[in-house]
Write a structure and sequence with these properties.
Layout lengths: L3 E14 L2 E14 L3 E5 L6 H8 L9 E8 L2 E2 L5 H7 L4 E4 L3 H4 L6 H12 L4 H14 L5 H4 L9 H13 L5 E5 L7 H18 L2 E6 L2 H4 L5 E6 L2 E7 H7 L3 H8 L49 E4 L2 E3 L5 H12 L4
Parallel strand pairs: 3-8, 3-9, 6-7, 7-8
Antiparallel strand pairs: 1-2, 1-4, 4-5, 9-10, 10-12, 11-12
Helix pairs in contact: 4-5, 4-7, 5-7, 7-8
Length: 336
């Protein structure tokens, strides 16, 4: 782990609704190191996006019941007012949203949208800001950037819009770049290009990257650390080596066995049975209990704590460590 840049401590985000309290994030803690890539993985509804929208200050106590701490450069972001959050959002912590067509303003030219962030945080002339926007479009791989900067988002392909979003996010050289499902709805070739682009820009801009995704395969080549989330909690945490070559949680095993492989018949894929639980009525005990093929007596009664099983490798499961290793070696590693 490199020097800590962002520390999230026991973060809880609950939404009151007419049907009950939606426990979207429930006691999540993690650290993002300088110039490292953190992969945050889990199915839709696991709390990934809500966690980082809260980090960005886009979900506040006006919208939800929030507790815990989000420490960035010595300040708790949850204690900052609107002006303090605006000074950090975009300039220090930036986010690439999963649907660039809705994130980009359809009535403004792409170049203008990039320059707006510069004008909001820097004293810079219009000509200089436009030159920066064109240069960034070129650096993210958009051809004819001088011409493209004058076009509207609907004139860009899906992959080009995602590149434009990356340029917008990097215009102020933030310390942390959060990529929320950055390859959703893109074809496989474009997905690989976008991931390689983010990884390359991370090195160039010396930016920490948080890759939020439902697909373990997406972070396989790029993440340094991986957090696996389920039903608002982190159920496993460790290095990429820990998660891919020695994972300890049955939910992670299910995600790994759901990854498609080029050398495997699609009929052999093993999806996780059942559906994620309602976050209003989370099962007692381990939230994964109803779907877990390895469940036993205490799983349905007591919530397992996230504990360090080995150096830097944490998980929340009651199976004995040796049994976890046996299952992974015999049933997961050979099929994932």
């Amino acid at each position: 782990m490199s020097e800590p840049l962002l520390e999230v401590r026991d973060l809880t985000v609950h939404f009151p609704t007419q049907d009950g309290l939606v426990k979207a994030v429930d006691g999540v803690s993690f650290t993002v190191g300088r110039r490292e890539t953190l992969g945050v993985v889990g199915e839709s509804g696991s709390g990934k996006s809500v966690t980082f929208l809260t980090v960005m200050g886009l979900i506040t106590r006006k919208h939800a019941r929030i507790s815990g701490e989000i420490i960035f450069q010595g300040e708790d972001l949850l204690k900052l007012g609107d002006d303090g959050l605006r000074a950090i959002r975009g300039a220090k912590i930036a986010m690439i949203f999963q649907d660039p067509l809705t994130a980009l303003n359809p009535v403004h030219k792409v170049g203008k949208q990039i320059t707006e962030a510069l004008h909001a945080h820097r004293e810079v002339s219009q000509d200089d800001a436009w030159a920066v926007a064109v240069d960034l479009l070129r650096r993210v791989g958009i051809p004819r950037p001088e011409e493209r900067a004058h076009q509207y988002p609907h004139e860009f392909s899906g992959g080009m819009r995602q590149r434009a979003m990356i340029a917008m996010a990097l215009v102020l050289r933030p310390d942390i770049l959060i990529a929320d499902e950055p390859t959703t709805a893109l074809d496989v070739t474009v997905q690989a290009q976008i991931l390689e682009l983010i990884d390359g820009l991370k090195e160039e801009f010396e930016t920490a990257v948080v890759m939020v995704t439902h697909d373990l395969g997406v972070v396989a080549e790029y993440a340094d650390e991986v957090q696996v989330m389920y039903a608002g909690k982190i159920v496993e945490s460790g290095t990429l080596q820990h998660i891919y070559y020695g994972s300890l949680h049955p939910y992670t095993w299910g995600l790994m066995q759901s990854i498609s492989r080029l050398d495997e018949d699609v009929d052999r894929l093993r999806p996780i049975k059942g559906s994620p639980p309602s976050l209003i009525d989370v099962p007692s005990g381990c939230a994964f209990y109803p779907r877990c093929p390895y469940r036993f007596e205490p799983c349905d009664k007591e919530i397992p704590r996230l504990v360090e099983e080995e150096m830097g490798h944490l998980d929340a499961c009651y199976l004995p460590l040796e049994e976890k290793k046996r299952v992974f070696a015999s049933e997961v590693a050979t099929k994932a």
